[in-house]
Automatic annotation (TrEMBL):
<dbReference type="GO" id="GO:0030056">
    <property type="term" value="C:hemidesmosome"/>
</dbReference>
<dbReference type="GO" id="GO:0005882">
    <property type="term" value="C:intermediate filament"/>
</dbReference>
<dbReference type="GO" id="GO:0031122">
    <property type="term" value="P:cytoplasmic microtubule organization"/>
</dbReference>
<protein>
    <recommendedName>
        <fullName>Dystonin</fullName>
    </recommendedName>
</protein>
<dbReference type="GO" id="GO:0045104">
    <property type="term" value="P:intermediate filament cytoskeleton organization"/>
</dbReference>
<dbReference type="GO" id="GO:0042060">
    <property type="term" value="P:wound healing"/>
</dbReference>
<dbReference type="GO" id="GO:0005737">
    <property type="term" value="C:cytoplasm"/>
</dbReference>
<feature type="region of interest" description="Disordered">
    <location>
        <begin position="84"/>
        <end position="148"/>
    </location>
</feature>
<feature type="compositionally biased region" description="Low complexity">
    <location>
        <begin position="126"/>
        <end position="148"/>
    </location>
</feature>
<feature type="compositionally biased region" description="Polar residues">
    <location>
        <begin position="109"/>
        <end position="121"/>
    </location>
</feature>
<feature type="compositionally biased region" description="Low complexity">
    <location>
        <begin position="94"/>
        <end position="104"/>
    </location>
</feature>
<dbReference type="GO" id="GO:0005198">
    <property type="term" value="F:structural molecule activity"/>
</dbReference>
<dbReference type="GO" id="GO:0016020">
    <property type="term" value="C:membrane"/>
</dbReference>
<dbReference type="InterPro" id="IPR043197">
    <property type="entry name" value="Plakin"/>
</dbReference>
Length: 347
């Protein structure tokens, strides 16, 4: 009678365990599929916000399902404890001679969310995180402790519980990694967009500050305009480091996520800012050069005007052609000198 009751108890325990185990495995398959199908992290602020909102219920579902994982662990361990006395004795791996020992395993429990076992729920098999060095990073990977029992030396129930624990932990790791990535990219993108807005506003200010295109009427006007444009160019040089760091940061982000949603728009925004910057920079340099040319023109004009005035005075000094041959010879020589000076002044 006692044996019959024991068999009945084992059967009831097995049915309860297998029913919940199947539910847990189906849930794991579903959530693994959902996580695998999550779209890549975007580089567009509104899309990132949507992705964060979409992730929250999955994180909550995974966290809340921990109680069910604990329950299936309890049922599995309880059933394993019932059948263990009837199972063959197992050998512990050791450098010492192998001895046949009776093994009493502590119940398996799920790993806590941070990857370390809960103080009151320590795994008897020293389960490692599925993403720890040397472990498989895929869903459904099987791991056993390096210093505990080998999988082929554990019961099938223990192997199933280990599998469930590893898969549940790996889903949590992937969800946590995605949450961290979303938050990091959102902050990185926020900084880049803020810098782009700052640069855009600065370029608008530069555009408004540029003097209207015109040729100055005097050297003083050209000098004033040139100094004004040089001041604008100095301001651009001061902002150059912000442009360079923003361009480098966005280029690095796009290199890491070339096909992410919003990548094309972000690239276009950066291209627009850099193109406007180069255009205004070239305009400033060309206008400064023009002002220098205008100043040179006025200097040349003033110099030539003074020289012509001096020559006109010399022409009046020559007076009419003399009737004295000696004076005529002198006048001819003076005219030849003046002609030579005129020739040297030609451009």
């Amino acid at each position: 009678l006692a044996q019959a009751l024991s068999v009945l108890q084992q059967h009831v325990q097995l049915m309860a365990y297998e029913k919940l185990r199947d539910q847990v495995l189906a849930w794991l398959q579903t959530i693994e599929t959902r996580v695998s199908r999550l779209e890549p992290v975007s580089v567009e602020m509104e899309t990132i916000k949507r992705q964060i909102d979409e992730l929250k219920p999955i994180l909550k579902e995974h966290r809340d399902y921990g109680m069910t994982i604990d329950k299936v662990m309890d049922l599995g361990n309880a059933y394993d404890a019932l059948i263990r006395p009837e199972s063959p004795t197992r050998r512990r791996s050791s450098v010492s001679p192998v001895k046949r020992t009776s093994v009493t395993a502590s119940p398996l429990r799920r790993t806590s969310q941070d990857g370390s076992p809960s103080p009151t729920k320590v795994s008897a098999f020293g389960l490692q995180s599925p993403v720890s060095p040397g472990g498989s990073s895929g869903f459904g990977s099987r791991r056993s402790s390096q210093d505990g029992f080998h999988l082929d030396e554990t019961t099938s129930v223990q192997q199933e519980l280990t599998e469930i624990n590893n898969r549940y932990t790996l889903v949590g790791t992937r969800l946590s990694d995605r949450q961290s990535e979303l938050e990091a990219v959102r902050e990185e993108l926020r900084k880049h967009l803020e810098h782009l807005r700052t640069l855009g506003q600065f370029l608008d200010k530069v555009q408004r500050s540029l003097p209207k295109e015109s040729v100055p009427n005097s050297k003083d006007d050209a000098d004033k305009t040139g100094k004004l444009i040089k001041g604008i160019l100095e301001d651009m040089y001061e902002k150059q480091s912000l442009l360079d760091s923003t361009r480098s940061g966005i280029s690095d982000l796009l290199k890491r996520k070339p096909s992410a949603a919003g990548a094309d728009n972000l690239h276009d925004e950066l291209t627009d800012i850099t193109s406007r910057w180069k255009s205004l920079n070239d305009i400033c340099k060309n206008r400064i050069q023009l002002m220098e040319d205008v100043k040179d023109f006025h200097d040349t004009h003033d110099s030539l005007t003074n020289w012509l005035a001096a020559k006109e005075r010399m022409m009046t000094v020559l007076g009419p052609i003399s009737s004295d041959s000696r004076m005529v010879q002198s006048q001819v020589q003076q005219v030849q000198v003046m002609r030579e000076e005129f020739r040297t002044q030609q451009p």
